[in-house]
Design brief:
This protein has 490 residues and is of the alpha/beta class. 42% of the residues lie in helices and 22% in strands. The chain is built from 17 helices and 18 strands. Strand 4 and strand 5 form a beta hairpin. Helix 1 runs parallel beside helix 2 and helix 3 crosses helix 5.
Length: 490
């Protein structure tokens, strides 16, 4: 796809717009108009009193065009020019593909956060009107935003200026799923790194705890994720959790989560270790209860294994269990996804997170044809709509939401929970409510200015082998946490 930018420089937003419909298309940019097939010409033409914003899409041997006019005296003129160009190009793609994404032109990661900000500034009615008329968001997604905001704001209100959360990365899995875009490594291929990785991880945890104490930060939540943390042994996982207990002040801790993740890694021994060392919330993530789909995505467990793992967790005393599902997996259909939702509800978890498949180049999933994502997006849209309706009927409410690039149907990921079972960490990290200190490979510490909105990030090395070989350099980077709080004291 060639994207021509004539008379303007709104490259970033228009590129994101194209990726809604053609997520894997290579995009070339030009400041001159072209008439080749596979070209989008976006144009800003300003006259004495008005500006015309237009988009011409040439694709599959057909042409589509749309234009809008804007007064040169319009409030927020530059932002409106960018928006109207995006709307014009969006209209062309909707006509060409026959598909209307429910989030309209909205491409941001945190739609509920945007809705909340607009509502606080201009009122709820104005926020709803803007989402519907200016961004072309459907009424269903607006409703989802409004409900999510209510839960998010109740949870974020618990945070204080000196609050922080701790994230610990264990980036190993039994196998790598076909859809996976995270930095995770199969135990078969990277198992030899695990002892050294855990040894250094414990050192980083202790080092991070010392920094938090010097600053005087208050620990609110702990989240051990991955990968699949239960890919390591009970002894290894217990050692990591003991390190947390030995080094951090957990007296004010509101929540402690460990992702048990893959059902084939869950054992009573590991669960008892997790429970004994202070975690009250776990996540068991089948993604689907369809054995055919599980095999297709490279999982080595069955739906029966999920049921067994869940029952074992209950027997070990866990009364706050989350399950993750993914809409849009290869081989899945709306009907089989509906069966998955119903099967998971029979387990009676406290929360259910419904993800939409994010197709990444690094995964093994591929799609072909003209607008290949349309059918997958339409089916995934039916799946997430069914999930929301059914879960709300069973007493679950949406409490946090985020979006990823290249997601089928430009859809969303939503956490649903029974009252009082919401994952605080999920809200804090997605809303960027307070500082997240992160340990482990690929972990990113996000430092939030107390009383302000500025965010500063400190990146750990991405891969376990790099984490191990450059560990001392990593610790040097982490001194930046102290410098940050010297500049932005609470």
């Amino acid at each position: 796809m060639k994207l021509c930018l004539i008379g303007h420089s709104f490259k970033y937003e228009l590129e994101k717009l194209v990726r809604i419909f053609l997520p894997f298309e290579k995009i070339e940019f030009s400041d001159e108009a072209a008439d080749d097939d596979g070209t989008a010409v976006t144009r800003l033409e300003r006259s004495e009193e008005k500006t015309v914003l237009s988009a011409l899409l040439l694709i599959n041997g057909k042409s589509y065009t749309k234009s809008y006019e804007l007064s040169n005296n319009a409030v927020d003129y530059d932002d409106e020019c960018e928006r109207l160009l995006a709307v014009a190009l969006y209209d062309d793609f909707v006509s060409a593909s026959g598909y209307t994404p429910e989030w309209g032109i909205l491409t941001g990661v945190r739609p509920a956060k945007l809705y909340s900000r607009l509502s606080r500034k201009n009122g709820d009615a104005a926020a709803e009107k803007w989402f519907k008329n200016a961004l072309n968001v459907s009424e269903e997604k607006i409703s989802l935003c409004k409900k999510t905001v209510v839960s998010e704001e109740r949870i974020t209100a618990l945070s204080r200026p000196d609050s922080f959360s701790l994230y610990i990365s264990i980036p190993f899995c039994p196998t790598r799923c076909a859809y996976c875009s995270f930095v995770s490594h199969s135990v078969e291929n990277a198992g030899k790194l695990i002892p050294d990785y855990i040894s250094l991880l414990k050192k980083e945890i202790a080092y991070t705890a010392d920094i938090a104490k010097k600053i005087g930060l208050r620990l609110e939540t702990v989240y051990i994720g991955g990968g699949t943390p239960t890919s390591v042994t009970a002894e290894q996982l217990g050692g990591i959790m003991e390190c947390v207990a030995d080094n951090f002040d957990v007296s004010d801790l509101r929540e402690y989560t460990v992702e048990a993740g893959r059902p084939d890694t869950v054992t009573a021994e590991k669960l008892k270790t997790i429970k004994r060392l202070g975690a009250g919330r776990i996540s068991i993530n089948p993604q689907t209860m369809n054995d055919f789909v599980l095999e297709k995505i490279g999982r080595r467990h069955t739906a029966a294994d999920t049921v067994k793992a869940f029952k074992t967790a209950r027997e070990c005393g866990f009364d706050n269990i989350n399950t993750d599902l993914i809409a849009g997996l290869p081989g899945d259909t709306p009907d089989s996804f509906y069966d998955t939702v119903k099967s998971v509800l029979e387990l009676d978890p406290e929360s259910i997170t419904v993800h939409s498949l994010s197709m990444k180049r690094s995964s093994r999933l591929t799609v072909t044809g003209s607008f290949p994502e349309v059918k997958v997006g339409e089916d995934a849209g039916k799946m997430v709509s069914f999930a929301r309706k059914t879960l709300e009927e069973h007493g679950f409410s949406p409490y946090y939401m985020y979006r990823q690039s290249k997601t089928v149907g430009n859809l969303e990921n939503v956490g649903y929970a029974k009252a009082g079972a919401e994952c605080l960490y999920n809200v804090y990290t997605m809303d960027e409510t307070h500082t997240i200190l992160a340990c482990g490979a690929s972990a990113v510490s996000k430092l939030r200015q107390p009383g302000g909105s500025y965010i500063e990030r400190i990146f750990n090395f991405k891969y376990p082998y790099e984490y191990i070989s450059r560990f001392n350099e990593l610790l040097e980077r982490k001194k930046g946490v102290i410098s940050f709080y010297e500049n932005y004291p609470y």
